[in-house]
């Protein structure tokens, strides 16, 4: 593999990549180039970045609607170049071979990518970025009001302009970010972290100005979800380098993402495409030649079903614990009244003490319910959504395969048409037709090769993504399980304190 | 159907204290059988009293027989000045039966293990209801046997001894009348008791106290029931979580497997502890409150009877001379009633305070024990996982 220039100094991975990005084109390409240059991959690492960029658009129709931002131009440009660039010729004729195209900016040395992976493995000593979402503030009045959140990024990564950044963002900004990342990366098989869900009911309460505990709970739930979403996004080595992400975290002003509204033109188109995808999924019957994928797909289907069940059970637990807290509060009040009514002095005092203790228990149970929710239930909720994204990449792979197959079919038809022409007897038009068909055949041969490369690339990407996903999953769950058990310990220890304080009071009844 | 072992019974005998100590008349319910809706109690008596034909004997009795006995005692005018121990409530298996039905319907949605565990839990609940009803019937008889006056009651003796079906002796129609007239009288009593001018400071105080306390304790009982039920629900949720974690772990092939195993195991262990916490709370707190709600009602009934007697005594005074004798009699009855009533209410307070103390102390001790157990289980698990 020939690199166009020497790899930048290893320690400065971020800098190097960012430095190349004089325009959006290069940055994107560079990032992907780094991803694919994994020396351990058995396939000839010949897939030039252009192949990825060609696919970045996916079905052209969709993109032109979804990418209603400057990236649009970039997307179109790359496709054009990759198809028509004269450099494609040598690729086609030599078969799989390392090819450098003008788009492909200086190839990032594979060692840099591995380093990024290692940095992650070192439990993030050098992967140093911490994002917090805080200070929800209501902006505006009535139905046009919205919540603005403060997004603070603390990092030592040099891809950022400062070590500490702070911006204000609203919920639709997050959705806009996700939408851009999804349209850019999903076709290539990347597992794009899903954004938190919309909630019309929850938001309406906030807009209307209902200042009760349910709306504060809703805002807190959302704040926490947004924070987790951003952390997951930046943990992804490819997403972290995306200009949209950087812009999101850094720019003080962000263009309003209107296409995220459910009833916008883009929203409706999204729904239409989702339906189309669902139909396609049923009609495409893929010949799975790779047992690994078949196995993995099944495994993730099972995991998805199980996680949904577990999520439901834990939500039930949260609900019952909240109920326990409320019933305890109710009992505490009743016991206090009983203590007041009791005419035996010592018993009266003990009952009052019991009531006070039960009041403390109420708070304890509520705290545990929050732990049940924020530690356990929300993690499961996140993973249920993530698994949907995982299932999505398998679907993308199927679509890519299907495109490849379609190209092969088309090529065959063209060849048949050519053969027919040989035996046609219209000599005047024959040469023109023959030339035309020859051109078309060349075109479709190119598409078939492209299709095969795309398929191989997406398969490779998915393997890597799944590996990463599993690693993250193991890490996340190991950490949460321990944190959750510790929360239970804390509750029980507090329980002991309360009962031990009460015991002498009970014994004092004489 | 299960029978009750002695150790369970001693553990359960919590709401009333120091009963069944008098060797001259020892009563217990060593056995009970549950058939469909009916529970058959075996009432066992050991006595040194000559009034009985044998020194030791057992008879089968149904719940209705206990009610008959209670009502008979209530109607006995001689006992108007006594607190008649409250009748045991009807055995109520409705809750576990309904839950068992729901479980059967939901069987398809859970794993075999989950179903088995839920079923075990329900069977335990069923057993707990059963044990409680036996205990409550037993305590009723023991309250009678330890009462200096009531223990000598002829009907009580018949109840203990008569070796044939009591329902023959029970005059059914009368009982129905008694029940309905009692409810009618109750509301009239409320009016009467609040209206009647009290002559005695002691009774004035008792009246104020009992009226207020009975409302409060009834409310506390309901709230305690809801609290224990919520606790049980949490324990049940632990079962489901443990089961699903187990299934996930079975198919897990990453480093997470061991963690999921231990986590699932922890939930399984914790649910047992939580279940015990809930049932201990039920027994020590809820059952205590329930019992004394009934007992307070029995004390209130005494006050009603006294109020009626006073009213009767005063009423008669409106009639002229020939009723003088009558009036004197009524007054005498009233005074006798008041005297014994005073004694009864005083000892009742003592009993109540002792029972509350015993149960609250025991509940606190059990809660501490369970929480310490949970802590050690959890910390052990965390240690193992951190070294994993």
UniProtKB/TrEMBL annotation, chain B:
**Keywords, sorted A to Z:** Protein transport, Transport
Q: Which SUPFAM superfamilies match?
A: BAR/IMD domain-like, PX domain
Q: Where on the tree of life does the source sit, at the highest rank?
A: Eukaryota
Where does the PX domain start and stop, copy by copy?
19-166
Instruction: List the Gene3D superfamilies hit by this protein, alphabetically.
Output: Arfaptin homology (AH) domain/BAR domain, Phox-like domain
Name any GO cellular component annotation.
cytosol
Please give the biological process terms from Gene Ontology that the record holds: pinocytosis; protein transport; retrograde transport, endosome to Golgi
Q: Which GO terms describe its molecular function?
A: dynactin binding; phosphatidylinositol binding
What family does the Swiss-Prot or TrEMBL record give for this protein? Belongs to the sorting nexin family.
This protein is called what? Answer: PX domain-containing protein
List the lineage, top down.
Answer: Eukaryota, Metazoa, Chordata, Craniata, Vertebrata
**Which gene is transcribed and translated to give this protein?**
SNX5
């Amino acid at each position: 593999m020939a690199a166009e220039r020497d790899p930048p100094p290893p320690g400065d991975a971020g800098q190097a990549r960012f430095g190349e990005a004089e325009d959006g084109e290069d940055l994107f390409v560079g990032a992907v180039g780094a991803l694919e240059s994994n020396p351990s991959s058995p396939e000839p690492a010949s897939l030039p970045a252009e192949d990825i960029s060609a696919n970045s658009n996916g079905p052209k129709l969709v993109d032109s609607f979804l990418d209603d931002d400057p990236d649009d131009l970039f997307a179109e440009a790359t496709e054009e170049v990759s198809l028509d660039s004269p450099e494609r010729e040598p690729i086609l004729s030599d078969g799989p071979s390392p090819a450098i195209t003008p788009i492909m900016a200086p190839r990032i040395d594979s060692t840099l990518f591995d380093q990024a992976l290692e940095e992650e493995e070192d439990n993030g000593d050098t992967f140093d970025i911490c994002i917090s979402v805080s200070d929800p503030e209501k902006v505006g009045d009535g139905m046009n009001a919205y919540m603005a959140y403060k997004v603070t990024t603390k990092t030592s990564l040099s891809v950022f302009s400062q070590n500490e950044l702070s911006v204000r963002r609203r919920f639709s900004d997050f959705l806009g970010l996700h939408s851009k990342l999804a349209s850019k990366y999903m076709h290539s098989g990347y597992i794009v972290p899903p954004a938190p869900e919309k909630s019309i009911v929850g938001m309406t309460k906030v807009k209307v100005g209902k200042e009760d505990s349910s709306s504060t709970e809703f805002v807190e739930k959302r704040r926490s979800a947004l924070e987790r979403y951003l952390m997951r996004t930046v943990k992804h080595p490819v997403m972290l380098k995306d200009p949209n992400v950087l812009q999101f975290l850094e720019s003080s002003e962000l263009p309003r993402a209107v296409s995220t509204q459910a009833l916008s033109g883009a929203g409706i188109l999204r729904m239409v495409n989702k339906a189309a995808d669902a139909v396609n999924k049923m009609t495409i019957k893929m010949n799975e030649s790779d047992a690994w994928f078949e196995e993995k797909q099944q495994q993730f289907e099972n995991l998805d079903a199980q996680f949904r069940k577990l999520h439901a059970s834990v939500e039930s637990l949260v609900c019952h614990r909240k109920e326990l807290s409320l019933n305890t509060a109710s009992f505490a009040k009743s016991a206090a009244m009983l203590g007041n009514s009791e005419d035996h002095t010592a018993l009266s005092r003990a009952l009052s003490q019991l009531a006070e203790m039960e009041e403390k228990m109420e708070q304890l149970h509520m705290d545990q319910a929050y732990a049940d929710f924020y530690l356990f239930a929300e993690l499961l909720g996140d993973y249920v959504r993530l698994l949907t994204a995982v299932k999505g990449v398998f679907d993308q792979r199927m679509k890519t395969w299907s495109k490849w197959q379609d190209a092969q079919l088309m090529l065959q038809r063209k060849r048949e048409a050519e053969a027919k022409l040989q035996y046609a007897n219209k000599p005047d038009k024959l040469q023109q037709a023959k030339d035309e068909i020859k051109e078309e055949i060349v075109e479709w041969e190119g598409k078939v090769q492209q299709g095969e490369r795309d398929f191989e690339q997406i398969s490779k990407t998915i393997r890597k993504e799944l590996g990463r996903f599993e690693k993250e999953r193991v890490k996340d769950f190991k950490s949460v399980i321990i944190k959750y058990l510790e929360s239970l310990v804390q509750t029980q220890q507090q329980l002991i304190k309360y009962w031990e304080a009460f015991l002498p009071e009970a014994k004092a009844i004489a | 159907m299960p029978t009750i072992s002695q150790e369970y019974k001693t553990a359960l005998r919590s709401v009333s204290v120091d009963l069944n100590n008098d060797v001259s008349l020892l009563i217990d319910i060593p056995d009970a059988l549950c058939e469909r809706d009916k529970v058959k109690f075996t009432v066992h008596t050991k006595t040194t009293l000559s009034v009985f034909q044998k020194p030791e004997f057992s008879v089968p009795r149904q719940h209705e027989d206990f009610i008959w006995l209670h009502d008979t005692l209530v109607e006995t005018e001689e006992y108007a000045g006594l607190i008649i121990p409250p009748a045991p409530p009807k055995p109520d298996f409705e809750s576990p039966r309904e839950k068992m039905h729901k479980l059967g319907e939901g069987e398809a949605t859970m794993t075999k293990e989950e179903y088995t565990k839920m079923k075990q839990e329900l069977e335990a609940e069923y057993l707990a209801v059963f044990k409680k009803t036996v205990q409550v019937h037993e305590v009723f008889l023991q309250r009678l046997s330890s009462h200096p006056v009531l223990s000598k009651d002829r009907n009580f003796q018949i109840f203990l001894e008569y070796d044939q079906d009591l329902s023959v002796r029970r005059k059914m129609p009368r009982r129905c009348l008694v029940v309905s007239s009692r409810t009618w009288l109750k509301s009239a009593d409320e009016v009467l008791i609040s209206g009647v001018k009290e002559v005695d400071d002691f009774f004035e105080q008792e009246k104020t106290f009992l009226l207020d306390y009975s409302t409060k304790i009834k409310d506390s009982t309901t709230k305690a029931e809801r609290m224990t039920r919520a606790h049980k629900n949490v324990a049940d949720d632990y079962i489901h979580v443990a089961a699903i974690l187990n299934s996930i772990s079975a198919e897990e092939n990453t480093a997470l497997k061991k963690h999921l195993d231990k986590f699932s195991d922890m939930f399984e262990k914790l649910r047992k502890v939580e279940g015990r916490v809930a049932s201990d709370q039920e027994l020590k707190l809820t059952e205590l409150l329930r019992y004394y709600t009934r007992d307070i009602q029995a004390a209130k009934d005494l006050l009603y009877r006294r109020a009626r007697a006073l009213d009767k005594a005063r009423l008669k005074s409106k009639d002229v001379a020939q009723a003088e004798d009558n009036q004197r009699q009524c007054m005498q009855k009233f005074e006798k009633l008041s005297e014994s009533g005073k004694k009864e209410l005083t000892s009742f307070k003592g009993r109540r305070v002792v029972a509350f103390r015993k149960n609250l102390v025991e509940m606190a001790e059990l809660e501490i024990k369970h929480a310490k157990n949970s802590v050690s289980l959890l910390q052990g698990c965390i240690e193992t996982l951190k070294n994993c």
